[in-house]
Amino acid sequence: MSTTRRCPHAETPVLDDEFVQDPHVRYAHMRADAPAQRVLTVTGMPVWVITRYAEARAALADSRFSKDFRRMGAVMDGHAQQGKPRPEFADSIQAHMLNMDPPDHTRLRKLVMKAFTARRVEALRPRIEEITAELLEAMAAKASDMSDVDLLDEFAFPLPIRVICELLGVPEERRDEFRTWSNSLVGGDPESARQAAGAMSTYLVELIARKRREPADDLLTALIEASEDSDRLGEQELVGMVFLLLVAGHETTVNLIGNGVLALLRNPDQLAAVRADPARVSDVVEETLRYDGPVNLATLRFTAEAVTMGDVEIPEGELVLVSLSSANRDEDKYAGAQEFDLDRSTSGHLAFGHGIHFCVGAPLARLEGQVAVRRLIERFPNLSPAAPHDDVRWRFSTLMRGLETLPVRLN
Question: Which CDD domains match (predicted)?
Fold first, then answer.
């Protein structure tokens, strides 16, 4: 007799603002109940969320969970609630490897990795150090006239947007627009996301055309020129890939820095350990990735056929979200998972995903996070919170896990 069960639909949880402000409490209950559970988005669309570590890791590498954007639309339309249509995005924005299955994904990733090499990332270290120092000095100057500063606005946001824009060759005068577009894309408003995607797509077409006319020593030129057996990225694929690298390369690092500093401020003993030994910033970055990583729920998948997760059957044609945040707080994987502990082994955390879609920008995010946290603590050894810990609010996004503001005192 089969032990497979379908998770009941009664009292279905909703991925609303209450969930966003404290998902870990909800996840703990969900993990205790079942490895996968059906929930509703704020628009009323039903999706399955996989919460336990073992099942999440398996799902991220399971080809039965498809990411093909060309088929995803039909699945979403089949689940959309009446009167609440899904936002429409141009194919040029969606045509990137995070939204594809093999063999398309394999081809695109191979071409991108030819341009986005470890050598290119490591070569950025001096520039990241330079930008970090500039931002910290500007923050110190502002703090002299104010009792506190917002660490996100003054440091965590501008550092990665400057790095990724310089890496790709985006002119300085357009960088504030990318921050605005990025915030809209990962927020909860479908219309704002659609408008931001359209504006970014239009600009990227112009930027790519200019790089074809005027090649430079940057990643975008390298992507244009990357080839494998005479194969190159097409125009639509280039737009999609630059879109992905800009948004993912910016948003994840902002949240990694902000979440890591908040965790240290909430755990003074851990902050003291880093002050005593700055080389421990690598532990800070890895434990932050596990404890409160920058991505909450991985991007949508759908079941190409029925899949059993533990003792729960997810039928064919269902939308699925894998909770990286929940998996990384699973006590069956990490003892004392609710504690921020720099001495723990974080091996195997899923903050950057797993399998073929593992984040290509992970080395850059780690590098920026380590430089940012180390230089911040060295420059401001008396860094302290400027507001009660419980007063922080998290940006409304089920995809990203990031703060709205992080007020701090520097001296």
Answer: CYP107-like (cd11029)
